[in-house]
Amino acid sequence: MIARDGTCTSLWQAITEPYIPANKADGDITYDVVLIGGGITGISTAWLLQQAGKNCLVIEARNIGFGTTGGTTAHLNTLLDTPYADISKNFGEDSAKLVARAAREAIELVKKNSKDLSIDCGFKDMPAFVFAQTQEQANDLDDIYLASAKAGLQLTYTNRIPVPIPFKRALIVRNQASFNPMPYVYALATAFEKAGGTILQDTRVTGVEEDEILTVTTSSSSFRARAVVFATHIPIGINLLHLRCAPYRSYAMAVRLMNKKDYPKGLIYDSEDPYHYYRSQEINGVTYLIAGGYDHRTADEENTENRFLQLEAYLRRYYNIKEIKYTWSSQYFEPADGLPYIGSLPGHTGNIFTATGFGGNGMVYSSVAAIILKSMITGEPDPYKGLFNPNRIKPVAGFVNFIKHNSHVAFEILSKIVPAAKMTAFVEMAPGEGKVAKYDGQTIAIHKDEHGNLHALHPECTHMKCTIAWNTAENSWDCPCHGARFDINGEVLTGPAANNLQTIHLD
Ligand code: FES
To answer: Is the bond into 18 cis (omega within 30 degrees of 0)?
Structure first.
């Protein structure tokens, strides 16, 4: 089983062995492209670039699939989270058509890679269904129908949906798909290495020094590159994108049903806010219903375990469940204007690229990013005419000075040793609990593990100093501002923080 960024186990993670890279990174050469992040975005982009003749190095802080790639529910859909009506309103009808085309081409790319490399990832063409349960939702669905049809999606109204949930109105969208993301990413990684590319795992990038040739510094050594791609979900450092992407967490469950005929065929979404989503997946002869929902802003929910209980109760209302096999949560970044940010990183030289703000459509936008970044880095025109350009963001007044100031702030070192016996505020904590509280004029983040041991940390996030909050479901400290996450010992699980939280020693 591979590691992931939390203590819950996802369906994909449980059936995946660690990836063993074939090639060794070379600190003496200049790579054409260094890609930071070994998720589906980094690996898909690296594979396209290596095929196009670029010599690439992928650097991953932990292991391939450690982040959201290992925690997705793997829907491949052109019916995206941001309704086409909103895209039309904000960007124009032609742009809505272009977004639909990009999503279509992304699914075709996954299909082509799966076929060309004979990947056993269960890629399946299937329809998607979206349904409304109230009159208000039905009115919204009519808008979705009109705008999506105008954007070029093949969809019609239907009076049957493959879930046993009452509904007022529903749409069926053709030509969507599902797959198992981990064999797909592993096969791309293997093909990438066979083509001469290199993957370096367990190495955290700490910064990029800009000059004619870029220097990527890591926890162990440094590498030179002509171009750098941040495929890290959100770039490290301090950037305008941190103000334009909001971190969210979503909750998923893979369950086995009593009746085989109840497994739905298709991708299904209701119209709640946040919506529930469903699909089936067969792995090694066993079929699962994968369902998700109950999303919230990262660090905004005190009792994250409650979200699993809500999801379970919801599923039990409609299904006869034999076994809940896996429960897990994962993180995504919601863009401010509804479209992802793919292209040159704002405020930097043109050879640093980013791909972020995918919302709940990471499996599709990761391939859109691969197509765009491969074009840009090889000097071809952007096939989507700059629609996803991160530089569409208007700079915020004073932001440059703000960065200059904050990037030089040295975090105060807490040399203080706190006598544990005096920490009365924490005595009542249950094992597994975590909280931020004041002790002796100082704020401390403290977690009691299942053996009753206390783990104390400085509660200021090392990215931009927001105060972290405890995530009970995943046993992690999560930052509400830009989504950085840390384990119980303060080690970074998720960027944009590049440095661990500071430990406080308890006497
Ligand atoms: Fe930015 Fe924590 S992630 S302050």
So the answer is: no
